[in-house]
Design a protein that fits this description.
- By secondary structure, the chain is of the alpha/beta class.
- 19% of the residues lie in helices and 25% in strands.
- The chain has a single domain, classed as Metallo-beta-lactamase, Chain A (4-Layer Sandwich).
- It is built from 5 helices and 12 strands.
- The strands form 2 sheets. A 6-stranded mixed sheet has the order 1-2-3-4-5-6. Strands 7-8-9-10-11-12 form a 6-stranded mixed sheet.
Length: 231
């Protein structure tokens, strides 16, 4: 198994590269366009074949373009069933799987942030895009549906085993991983109150995300003055 988080400083986005090393098959989740060269280098370094480019959601059809990643690798685009993208893609519904080598990701439909939002469950890890952020959530004033978002998080994601590792689509809080149990009990948007209070908050301030301020440094890069981790 190979797993790597790839941080994009300008947008605070996190992409994920997963691979079955025995089969040399790989997938990438939510790659950023200007990191294609980096991803291609990582694939070449470990002699991996990129099978799929997965999108957890799209705000516009243009986000479906794979660019150099698909052109140079022959990878297929994988989207949610309700994607706005009109080009060639494997459109996956809730409960479908994406198989690479002997590994498989399960698709969870989680509409709300956008109508086509999905999450991908791999082993003990959940890749949730913008459906859920660590400690909060993200909303888009034009595309988000607060009611569907609340239901997707509480009725799909929070029903997973508490020890499931949760990997978000962005790093706004200086953290790159949480657990379902932690978000279930401590996420500021969902842990307190009810569905009605969640909808009221979004009606009063539509499209405003509940999240901490972004970090001032790349959290995936060691800092010069940071204390070394204990062995």
């Amino acid at each position: 198994m190979y797993f790597r988080q790839i941080f994009h400083s300008p947008s605070y986005s996190i992409s994920y590269l997963l691979a079955d090393m025995s089969a040399c098959d790989a997938v990438v989740i939510d790659p950023v366009a200007d990191q294609a060269e980096l991803l291609l280098a990582l694939l070449q370094e470990r002699d991996l074949r990129l099978r799929y480019v997965l999108r957890t959601h799209m705000h516009s059809p243009q986000q479906g373009l794979c660019g150099e990643l698909c052109r140079f690798t022959g990878a297929d685009l994988v989207t949610g069933a309700d994607t706005p993208y009109e080009g060639a893609a494997l459109r996956k519904a809730h409960g479908d799987t994406v198989v690479f080598g002997s590994e498989a990701l399960r698709v969870l439909a989680t509409p709300g942030h956008t109508p086509d939002s999905v999450c991908f469950l791999w082993r003990d890890r959940l890749f949730c895009g913008d459906t859920l952020e660590i400690g909060g959530y993200r909303a888009d004033a034009m595309q988000s549906d607060p009611g569907r978002l609340y239901d997707s998080v509480t009725q799909r994601l929070f029903l997973l085993p508490g020890e499931t590792l949760l990997f978000p689509g962005h790093n706004f809080a200086g953290r790159t991983v949480s657990t379902v149990a932690e978000e279930r009990h401590h996420n500021a948007a969902f842990a307190a109150g009810s569905r009605d209070s969640f909808l009221t908050a979004n009606t009063r301030q539509p499209g405003l995300p509940l999240r901490p301020e972004p970090p001032r440094h790349n959290p995936l890069t060691p800092q010069k003055n940071a204390h070394p981790e204990a062995p």
